[in-house]
Amino acid sequence: MIAPIAKKPVPRRFHQASWDEPVIFELSQPGQRGVLIPEVENGIQETVGDVTSRLPAHMRRTSPPRLPEMSQLHVLRHYARLSQENLGVDLNIDVGQGTCTMKYSPKVNDQLARSAKMTELHPLQDGSTVQGMLEIMYRLEQMLKEISGMDRFTLQPGAGSAAIYTNVAMIRAYHESRAESRQRDEVITTIFSHPSNAACAKVAGYKIITLYPDADGYPDIAALKAAVSERTAALLITNPEDTGIFNPRIEEFVEIVHSVGGLCSYDQANANGILGITRARDAGFDLCHFNLHKTFSTPHGCGGPGAGASGVTDALAPFLPKPTVEFDGVKYYLDYDRPQSIGKIRPFYGVAQNILKAYAWIMSLGADGLRAVAETAVLNNNYLMQKVLQVRGVSAPYAPGKRRIEQVRYSWEQLANDTGVHSEEIGFRVVDFGTHYWTSHHPYVVPEPMTLEPTESYSKADLDEYVTILAHIAEEAYSDPEIIHNAPHNSTVHKIDPDSFDDPDKWAVTWRAYLRKTKKERG
Amino acid sequence: MNPLAGIGGRVGLKGSDGQEIQEQALALGAVPQANLRTAQALETLVPFQQDFELLTPPGEMGETVSRQLGFRPRLVSTISSARTTADDTIRAAEFMQASGVDMILFAGGDGTARDIYKAVGINLPVLGIPAGVKIHSAVFATHPRCAGQIAADYLHAKRLRLREAEVVDLDEDMYRKGYVSTRLFGYLKVPYRPHLVQNQKVPSPVAEIARLDAIAADIIENMQSGWLYILGPGTTTRAIAARLGLPKTLIGVDVMTSQESVALDVSELRLLELVKDHSFKIIVTPIGGQGFLFGRGNQPISPQVVRQAGRENIIVVSLNEKLNTLGGNPMLVDTGDPEVDALLVGHYPVITGYHESVIYRVVD
Amino acid sequence: MTAKKPVYPYIPNSAPDVKEEMLRTVGAKSIDELYADIPANLRFKGKLNLPDPLLSESELVRHIEGLLAKNSSTRDYLSFLGAGCWQHHVPAVCDEINSRGEFLTAYAGEPYEDHGRFQALFEYQSMMGELLNMDVVNVPNYDGFQAGGTALRMACRLTGRQKVLVVSMIGSDLLSKLRDFLKPDIAMEMLPYQPDTGLVDLLALETRLSDEIAAVYFENPSYLGFIETQGDQIAALAHARGALCVVSVDPISLGVLNPPVDYGADIVCGDIQPLGIHMLYGGGHGGFIATRDDERFVMQFPSRLFGIAPTVVEGEYGFGDVAYERTSFALREEGKEWVGTAAALWGITAGVYLALMGPEGMVEIGERIMQRTRYAMMKVAAIPGFHLPFEGSHHFNEFVVNFDATGRKVADINRSLLKKGIFGGKDLSLEFPQLGQSALFCITEIHSQVDIDCLVSTLQEVLE
């Protein structure tokens, strides 16, 4: 008999890969090549000769770009090492990135999207050769229509904020068509809606009025009444908001804005907890948008490519970006004959591979499955909240005693006042246990914020582990805060000195700038 | 440090300024909080003690706690009596400034901050270790340990940017009569570190200038010629004057048109004269901490002036971050005239940027 | 037998036992209680009308592959399509790296736990910097159209002016995007071109420049494939009137073509799709914007900019956001647009591509594309009835062919080509009516002599 190996301690003894990897330029070996391209055949050489030398001198590049020279294995190895120095949903309990909906992106969908019948399609191919692609786009539109209750969708926007901008552009076009755009120059939003609602409307030329919440943290309907007027173009609102609180008076909000002739656009970035539970159209909204890389599982890609979907009622359908995808009973086709369209939001029709992945995800779940997604996301979130609130020094501001939908914005104010440890520092310490942590978007209304969104992808054991980590760090704050102040200890790198980032004489966005400012020799 | 800071709170008294109150508290056996908190701050500096010289007043005002932690401080000035007074704080700070210190670290509350301001104004960097009952001024670190950390960073790097932070305090007499009334007393230059000073993130000094300029641009876009503009105290209203190229006192009420300065630092009477039979608007910013737009007490902008202006001619300006320091609480008005207060109560627009505003609650 | 409720592989806590336990912890009898805040009249009644699910993975694969089978790709047809999306070879290592889960499924972590992403993107910025000969390059934004729109808005913010001059030889899609994105405050005026070459009419440019113009925008190579050789003169004219020169460039041409900054460009932008990213039916786009390392310019970027910094350990590299708060303010344009999810993974991919290709590879690909393009042009021009309107210009990657003399429409010719297994050039007849029945043909490094000869002979066949 042998003695069993001792139980693993909790929280786990994580250490991230740490290669101390140089910057790629430092790995350059003169003469190396990573990949070769076909030579030009003799037939062509003899016919055309040396074409580039006939360019006017000032148009010709005088010396090759100073890129690194590396063999193929060395490029692969360098990036493979960097990938090990990165955490994704695949590796960590990613509940700490609230508002981002870090759910599992099924591998089968990624693999399906790698088919040459997806990757090698040129967007200008004759419609008869891309009937499968068009059908997928059409079907996804039908599904999103059903999920939201809206009449039409465009899948053209590149991601969520692009979809918000698309909605604002359509709102603007709508009012222009009624000769009211000069009069309607104000857009209303709330402080807990995603900041892109204000930012996109600003770019589109609107004055922004932001509503602060009432004493309980709900969007303040009296504030809305004070804000609306004949100058109101639209209300842009996220619901549930980034606090995880559902606005129970959302229908009244819409009525108030409609009563002054404004439109209402529903930012559904936080749709994950309400799929099949409540719909944008039923609350009276004129437009909405979804993030396919949040709710609908397409992978986040370190920050894109994602995909956005904008939905509208029939009244706004004429303004949709073009082309739309149509079906005449026999074939699918792209419709450019849309005289009132706002035109193009991006090249071509959308992030097609993500449209495919979102479609596949919905097909794998169906209506019952989407319901299970929403219900489990909400259960996970409330379970997590229950346990997190038992941790010393943490609170969940607003809506006292009420449930949350799919995420919660917490506050470490108590702990910070007691110990001097800040939320951001807790975030750096959490890294030592192999996971992530998100404070919140700007503006920072909640002091010492932490926003957690578990989604449906994580198990009860995952959630318990995350809470254990937070509790452990909270105890450290009260007993040994130095370990937090100097965190992280077990990550890829140690505490970064941020002083150069805001100093124009010191900042370096490229290696060449860095060499120039530090007067280093090129390796 | 103000060794008597923090006494009032523990035994239920409101603030510890004024000799009488202090005697009462000590008779009840209260222990000054200041020592403990100062120690927490100085602990962070212990590893670096070779790198800087510590100046501190003798005895309870700083020497005792410094020596306890192992520092060998240079001493400045002398204390006048067994009980330390505000005068001693002022004299110590003046002495430190004259000695050419790089930074003053003080422990106390809003009262102490006021004393430091009286002594040095915005001439050199200052940072407060929170050790008082009343901490509404924006000059305090969130926690004594953070104060030490920032001081250490500042002394090493000396590149920390500085921002002007409000010194506010309650009017003590009003407070004991049951009226809360905050006043802006001045500004101190405080080192900027995101989230280490104040619970809310404030913009970096450079961003702040740009954001205030944006608010100013919005206001100026809507200014009408021939109208008078009454600008209340603060850096936000100062930015408006700056963009117009006109002078502005930092803590006084000034009157101007969009073209020229009419009067600076006016009294209540002078203001009434100026606005008599004139079209005018009032531009104010909420005072940090409590969020007062108009309070009682010594106010140049009297209830009569407010009433004469009317709600539509009262413009409120503020950075979002300033509103966030109110922690979700509404802005306050308490002019002493309930009819005038009623003009402003409810949901009020606040200009927070260029073509940006918020709707925020106001209560009386 | 009652149907069992399925346990979903993607939803661990859908298993009934664990669900019960969690409900108990939360103190709720059912999940419905958790939705108490949603008014009853807003609760969706019944089930969403969605297709029946394919719960097993094999059924899902079969279904999706069945749909994809209705597609034919550029593997099945010989394609000469370009016009904003290009068929270059994607090295296997590019796909390998961007399919690794650590990169694919990461998002917005800190430069500690996501150090890899920061370094990979810093390296992308750096390699693009070498290609462009500029010190500041952004983390990618959505696509080249967005990059162009943002670059023009940046120019307006920098100069305080509200009008831009744009060459008329740009694609109608880009024009549409700019028209929308520059509303309501920025006016756009189109610049006339010289009919033989397509190049900017410099005299017209000079006349139109004024103190109101913030920027002059052109592309190199142009949308129609010819190279604007007057870049230095355009920039000089613009600068003389205080305007900025904004150039959109195809990065894969920069091994042989001079980086625009070297002939006077102030802001350079474009799309990185040619650098190791599949066409993906238009899903492979990412935009870049580059400027010199001048505080005024840096402050105008609406994107993230990753910078390098030391850590507390000697010799260790750390990364973070440069100038995270963009702090300048210009009256009309306070908002620095917005920052959102865009195309970071493509940035990493483009970095891998540039590292694999290296200096020699980028020179070679530029040279060989130009040679193949020239060959195709010569052969096509030799076909009776075919005319190259901009033959006088140098070309990279694409060229216009006019069919008017054949009496046939482009659509018709393309239909015939399709039957023979070829995707012909993009039909330009609606986009540029002044060019008559014309098409835009694209040649890259993957088109062999056999391919080009096949195109030529098929075109001849089709005309008979």
Characterise the protein shown here:
The complex is a heterotrimer of chains A (523), B (364) and C (464). Chain A has a 7-stranded mixed beta sheet, with helices on both faces. In chain A, strands 8-9 form a two-stranded antiparallel ribbon. In chain A, strands 10-11 form a two-stranded antiparallel ribbon. Chain A has helices at 42-48, 72-84, 107-112, 116-119, 131-148, 160-177, 196-203, 221-227, 250-259, 352-388, 413-419, 423-430, 460-479, 482-485, 511-518, and strands spanning 152-154, 186-190, 207-211, 232-238, 263-267, 287-291, 308-312, 324-327, 332-335, 408-411, 449-452. Chain A is α/β, with parallel strands linked by helices. In chain A, strand 8 (324-327) and strand 9 (332-335) form a beta hairpin. Chain B has 2 domains: 7-191, Rossmann fold (3-Layer(aba) Sandwich); 205-363. Chain B starts with 6 loop residues before the first helix and ends with a strand. Helices cover 35% and strands 20% of the residues of chain B. By secondary structure, chain B is α/β, with parallel strands linked by helices. In chain B, helix 9 (205-221) crosses helix 10 (235-244). Chain C is α/β, with parallel strands linked by helices and 464 residues long. Chain C folds into 2 domains: 78-87 and 360-463, Aspartate Aminotransferase, domain 1 (Alpha-Beta Complex), CATH 3.90.1150.10; 92-353, Aspartate Aminotransferase, domain 2 (3-Layer(aba) Sandwich). Chain C has helices spanning 16-26, 57-68, 92-98, 101-104, 115-132, 144-159, 172-181, 202-208, 231-240, 295-298, 344-381, 410-419, 449-463, and strands at residues 78-79, 136-137, 163-167, 187-191, 213-220, 244-249, 267-271, 287-291, 306-310, 317-321, 398-402, 422-423, 426-427, 438-442. A 7-stranded mixed beta sheet of chain C has the order 2-8-7-6-5-3-4, sandwiched between helices. Strand 3 (207-211) of chain A pairs parallel with strand 15 of chain B, so a sheet runs across the interface.
